[in-house]
Amino acid sequence: MPDITFVKPALPRSGALVLLLAEGAALAGLAKAAEEATGGAVSRGLEAAKFKGTKGQSCTLWAPSAGLAKIVAIGLGKADALDAQGAENAGGSAQVAVQQEREAVIAADGLTPTLAASVAMGARLRSYRFDRYRTTEKEEDKPKLERIAIASAEATKAKAAFAPMQAIADGVFLTRDLVSEPPNVLTPTEMAERCKALEKLGVEVDIIGPREMKRLGFGALLGVAQGSAQEPRMVTMKWMGAPKGKKQKPLAFIGKGVTFDTGGISIKPAGGMEDMKWDMAGAGTVIGLMAALAGRKAKADVIGMVGLVENMPSATAQRPGDVVKSYSGQTVEIINTDAEGRLVLADVMWYCQEKYDPRFMVDLATLTGAIIIALGHERAGLFSNDDTLATHVKEAGSAVGEKAWRMPLGDAYDKQIKSDIADMKNVGGRPGGSITAAQFIQRFVNGKPWAHLDIAGTAWSSKDAPTVPKGATAYGVRMLDRMVADHYEG
Ligand code: BES
Ligand code: MN
Ligand code: ZN
Predict the structure, then answer these.
(1) CATH classification of 167-487, choosing from 3.40.640.10, 3.30.470.20, 3.40.630.10, 3.20.20.370?
(2) Ligand 1 atom closest to Cα of 427?
């Protein structure tokens, strides 16, 4: 990951120079200086490449002057329409364009300091790589970039604006690391261990295991865990950042952390089963979110809770037909052992409410394949019993490019999970599969404002996006950090 610094505008003598050019704008500042230093090569090159500065357009001039390896021009679109997301995307494209050089200067001298910081954020987010397990990658294939200097007339201001963004990017990277790890490495115990790293940021971390869960009566979560040789864990992370005298009830974020989901006795087909290593993305997102909030010292009291289990078939696994008693006291008939995420969330959410009496709860879970059928990979499913909370979640997501779409809830759907033998069953049939899953979770909401994000379609991506390389997306970290910042601080 390259170091990012903020410097006064000056032409580099080596490495790469990135020019961020708005549509139809004349060359100015560093771009004009580069034009003069190269004897007009910049304008000649841009013209020959038919570069207009439209959004996403880019053009490379190789060896434009002695010493300099390349100048890359990146289009920003219309100058007056440039927003934070546009600046981040340009930064992401810049990162990709220069990553084979050791050093790069990005000329953000035409931008406000805040937008210059967003360019840096985009470059940082796109620089992510998970290469821990590659031992034979060729040197020439590895990125070389060591330093990015963002050139800004107000470098000090830009640097200050970037500081909280960097903490958020650290949280995003933590989530991406957790979600990318293979399931033989990232077991529930290992994942709980990694939560402990947040202590150095001032987060209080509390871990419980199966004995304590049994004592409490976590029958729903333990039923999922019982087929695995790996012990389950529940981790509570507390960030108490609200200033004294401004204390309110804490905000609560809860994540599904199934470190591998075979489906259990209702076993999944073999094709694509390896994807189920990222069935802990909800939990991974909560952990990264807590790191982001603590890292930027958010002025809010926030509880993050994750339920960590592995769903395996074995002689000790739970069966379809079993009835389990959840921590809430409600009983559940297990129809399909592959509908396990909701069982894990049920106990963690009830416990969260009993113990912390939160102002609201937001849960995140790679809960249903059905949400991918409904919304594809573009938007997460958002379910809520509270219009204000739902709006806060959705709008924060739009502001950072993590989109969600509100889905319905209601009694008619709830009827689908009625059981003949217990208080409910754990599946409601194929129609509206994501909605009946949300209805199940809602039965464990005890009068609190609540929102549920089904991130099965958005947690992992098979294609590169400007600020999100393919793989683990960390969807939700930026959204929920932004929601806290916009509505629940100060
Ligand atoms: N983890 C899966 C959901 C999932 C599917 C996430 C695809 C990411 C990609 C979940 O535990 C599951 O298996 N859900 C079942 C529910 C069904 C048995 C009612 C599903 O969606 O098929
Ligand atoms: Mn499952
Ligand atoms: Zn699952």
Answers:
(1) 3.40.630.10
(2) 19
Q: For the chain, what is the largest distance between any 2 Cα atoms, rounded to a whole number of angstroms? A: 83
Smallest CA-to-CA distance from 167 within 138, 136, 113, 124 is with 124
Q: Which of 385, 384, 386 is nearest to 404 (CA)?
A: 384
**195 close to ligand 1 (CB < 6 Angstrom):** no
List of residues 6+ apart from 80 with CB closer than 8 A = none
CATH, range 3-153: 3.40.220.10
Kindly state the percentage of the chain with pLDDT values over 90: 99
Q: Which atom of ligand 1 is closest in space to residue 366's alpha carbon?
A: 6
Q: Quote the pTM value.
A: 0.98
Rounded to the nearest integer, the mean pLDDT of the chain is 98
The question of whether 448 is a catalytic residue gets the answer no
Does the pLDDT at position 246 exceed 90? Answer: no
425 is catalytic: no
**Residues measured by CB to lie within 5 Å of ligand 3, the ion:** 258, 261, 279, 341
Which pair of tokens denotes residue 137? Answer: 């990658």
